[in-house]
Amino acid sequence: MAYEFRLPDIGEGVAEGEVVRWFVEPGGTVRADDPLVSVLTDKANVEIPSPVSGRISQIHAQVGEKVKVGGLLVTIETVGSGGPAPAPSVPPPTPTPPQNSTTPVPSVAAAVPKPSSGPSGVLASPFVRRRAAELGVDLSHVAGSGPGGRITEGDVVSAKAGTPESTSSPMWPALSSAAGPGLTPASPTKVVTPPEDDVRERIPIRGIRRVIAEHMSESTHKAAHFTYVEEVDVSELVALRDRMAKHVERQGVRLSYLPFIIKAVVAGLREYPRLNATMDDARQELLVRSRYHIGVATAAPDGLLVPVVRDADRKSVVALAKEVQDLAERGRAGSLSRSELTGSTFTISSLGALGGLLATPILNYPEVAILGVHKIQRRPVYRTDGTLGPADMMNLSISLDHRVVDGYEGAQFVAKVKSYLEDPHQLFAELA
């Protein structure tokens, strides 16, 4: 009996998933409950077991291809009559979120809008649809080059370049000779392909890396990024952390500076709540959040993840250290759940000892602020009393969505975070 296995409804409004790995191959066999396929949904890998035992007749979705809920994944030839009845040939309807939902878009790893077929029947992400509208391109006449016929931004740009009015767009109007001396009409940008013998390696942009690429593009196209930098003397923090570490690490927990920074950030967000917010562009509303869910950017083998420390204001430094360590370890192992990668209200990005002197972090859209933490360096500084002495110095850089947060408000927030890091004992003297 041929059993057609379709992508099940994984829940939480997931409409589609990208196939990242097959654990079987055509002609092979599989037992019920054995791993069948790994699917990426909002940057969380979901390992789906086989519902039946049998022989793999045909795989319908290749690695890198996106499949909608209800889409056909694989056909399995079952043996005997004990297996379940074949799945219905008509896929179930794709779940849609409530129209008035204010749930934030998931964080870095999971914040990218999923491509949808939309009213026109074409497969394209919201960002690609918006780009097509800006360029005046009808997506129903564009051939998609992505997996499953998905339309990419490159397809839209190429389609625009093939039209007579390709030298102008709402975003980048073309220059005409009438605009002034020496100005000529703009011409479409052509992609220069290097000779094949000059290509060392072709690396498909798929899975988590593609999610990151799309999310970064959406963030930079929607938000108006503004970065502010401040220098912090963390000499007292270094001394405090060193004293605490020898006690905390007896419990098998590594005490980094990050838990202290999280506590300082929460203290700053309490005084400047507009930075603990997400942007609802569809309704043109800033959603100021009442809970403090701090995303912590974490490097993983497949790309950057942002696991979320929920209700960070209710946790001690030691509890934060344990949770951050656990999330980082499971993130690198690829075992974080979707719920652990979504819902942050503010993000911290730190490379630890490799933090460099300065970076301009990209907003974890739809959040409106992200804090970059840089390496600590000991160097001589002049103190307020005119003396010269050694100090442990660190830079903080905050990127803001300048559409809704002014630079002055961002600077006030950083000043508050700085005051807590320069006198970290304040973190333990907060009133409930």
What does it look like?
The protein is of the alpha+beta class and 432 residues long. It folds into three domains: 2-78, OB fold (Dihydrolipoamide Acetyltransferase, E2P) (Beta Barrel), CATH 2.40.50.100; 105-173 and 203-222, E3-binding domain (Dihydrolipoamide Transferase, Irregular); 224-428, Chloramphenicol acetyltransferase-like domain (Chloramphenicol Acetyltransferase, 2-Layer Sandwich). Helix content is 22%, strand content 23%. The protein contains seven helices and 19 strands. It has helices at residues 126-135, 153-161, 208-222, 235-248, 258-271, 317-332, 407-422; strands at 2-6, 16-22, 29-30, 35-41, 44-49, 54-59, 66-68, 72-78, 225-233, 277-280, 285-288, 294-296, 298-300, 303-305, 308-309, 346-350, 369-373, 377-382, 388-401. The strands form five sheets. Strands 9, 12, 15, 16, 17, 18 and 19 form a seven-stranded mixed sheet that branches. Strands 1-8-6-3 form a four-stranded antiparallel sheet, with no helix packed on it. The chain has a four-stranded antiparallel sheet with strand order 5-4-2-7, with no helix packed on it. The longest helix is centred in the last third of the chain and has 16 residues, at 317-332. It starts with a strand and ends in a 10-residue tail after the last helix.
